[in-house]
Design a protein that fits this description.
Blueprint lengths: L23 E3 L2 E3 L3 E3 L22 E2 L16 E4 L2 E4 L8 H15 L3 E5 L4 H11 L7 E5 L3 E2 L5 E2 L4 H14 L6 E5 L6 H10 L4 E4 L3 E4 L1 E2 L4 E2 L5 E5 L4 H14 L5 E3 L6 H10 L3 E4 L9 H15 L5 H4 L9 H11 L3
Bound molecules: flavin mononucleotide.
Length: about 350
């Protein structure tokens, strides 16, 4: 394994930077590059394609699509927060049939690796979505958004109960092509995220996406009412990054062989590097896109630079590197580099 080379002063040795092999894999899903868009923050990628060539990314994760068209929640449905934002969009979208006909067809023709995100309000809806997507060309993987209320179980969010999370993934697995990569997208709003991770992997998920937004609330002090019409909303952006890194770390430790797509507040290549070191094999970029539409490709380039600066010749060597048992290896490297006797 290629190891990082650190200078004794604690800085990094950036001379003789190797070309970095950025290819990665999320289980059966091989990607030439590790940065994807986060679901809901870049629609189906068409708008971003005006700013950079979206085929250069690892892939596009599309906005979660439901069985039927939905107009989403009442407005206001976004509020600014320190270092982040709160949203309660409510899964507005065209429904699966129109999504397949328009968005997926465009993505396929554009040559994009597409991960389709699906969401439902009961297990049967997830099954039907999986059936609709089966045999549709141009799908590299399915991300299952389970941060939705289960209307058949008192509105409890699927992702917060191991049994419910598992039933959704089982249903999607059963109705999908056996070789289709299935990523279960987890919520951080649980006591033990590794319990949910174990449940979805047992149910047939081939990888884990983590994390979705965390539940928050803002009060508008002028109206003295909740700022969002939906009262609560999902917090995203840099404010949640340490929570997301912690989730990736814990899942990597509990399930060392399960690939992780990490996300939450990534704004720079250095942020993305944290997720890779914690155990993610690829990352998704969301909220930052709203003020910097070129962020995904910029972050991908910056991540390559970070890897080079830390002496990695391939991204895969850096995955989980923060979990190494002791810094003995680094001491060896420093000795080799500086010929310390
Ligand atoms: C406006 C908005 C809409 C979102 N819509 C979805 C969605 O449809 N499906 C989903 O799984 N996650 C959705 N998310 C969550 C993001 O995909 C991502 O998991 C989360 O925002 C953390 O990443 P970030 O901090 O980089 O945005 C949405 C987030 C935002 C801000």
């Amino acid at each position: 394994m290629t190891r990082a080379v650190f200078s004794p002063a604690g800085g990094t040795a950036s001379e003789q930077r190797p070309d970095v092999d950025m290819s990665t894999s999320l289980g059966f899903l091989d990607l030439p590059a590790p940065v994807l868009t986060a679901s809901g923050c870049a629609a189906a990628g068409r708008e971003l394609d005006q700013f950079f060539d979206i085929t250069e990314l690892g892939g596009i994760v599309t906005k979660s699509v439901m069985l039927q068209p939905r107009s989403g929640r009442a407005t206001p449905r976004m509020a600014e927060t320190p270092s982040g934002m709160l949203n309660s969009i409510g899964l507005q979208g065209p429904g699966i049939d129109q999504f397949i006909e328009k968005d997926l067809a465009w993505l396929e023709q554009r040559g994009v690796r597409t991960i389709v995100s699906i969401a439902g309000s009961n297990v049967d809806e997830y099954s039907k979505l999986a059936q609709k997507l089966r045999n549709v060309p141009g799908i590299a993987g399915i991300e299952v958004n389970i941060s939705c209320p289960n209307v058949e179980n008192r509105g409890l969010v699927f992702a917060c109960q191991p049994d419910s999370a598992s039933s959704v993934i089982q249903a999607v697995r059963r109705f999908s092509d056996p070789k289709m990569p299935i990523l279960a997208k987890l919520s951080p709003d649980v006591t033990d995220i590794t319990e949910i991770a174990h449940a979805v992997v047992r149910a047939g998920a081939t990888g884990i996406s983590v994390m979705n937004t965390t539940l928050g609330m803002v009060i508008n002090t002028d109206t003295m009412r909740p700022a969002l019409a939906g009262v609560t909303g999902g917090l995203s952006g840099p404010a949640i990054r340490p929570i997301a890194v912690r989730c990736v770390w814990q899942i990597r430790k509990a399930l060392p062989d399960v690939p992780i797509l990490g996300m939450g507040g990534i704004r720079t290549g250095q942020d993305a590097f944290q997720f890779i070191l914690a155990g993610a094999s690829a990352v998704s970029v969301g909220t930052v896109v709203f003020n910097d539409p070129s962020a995904p490709i910029r972050i991908q380039h910056e991540l390559a630079q970070q890897l080079a600066d830390h002496g990695f010749s391939s991204l895969s060597d850096a995955v989980s590197f923060a979990h190494r048992s002791a810094d003995v290896d680094l001491v060896d490297d420093v000795e080799e580099e500086f010929e310390i006797e």
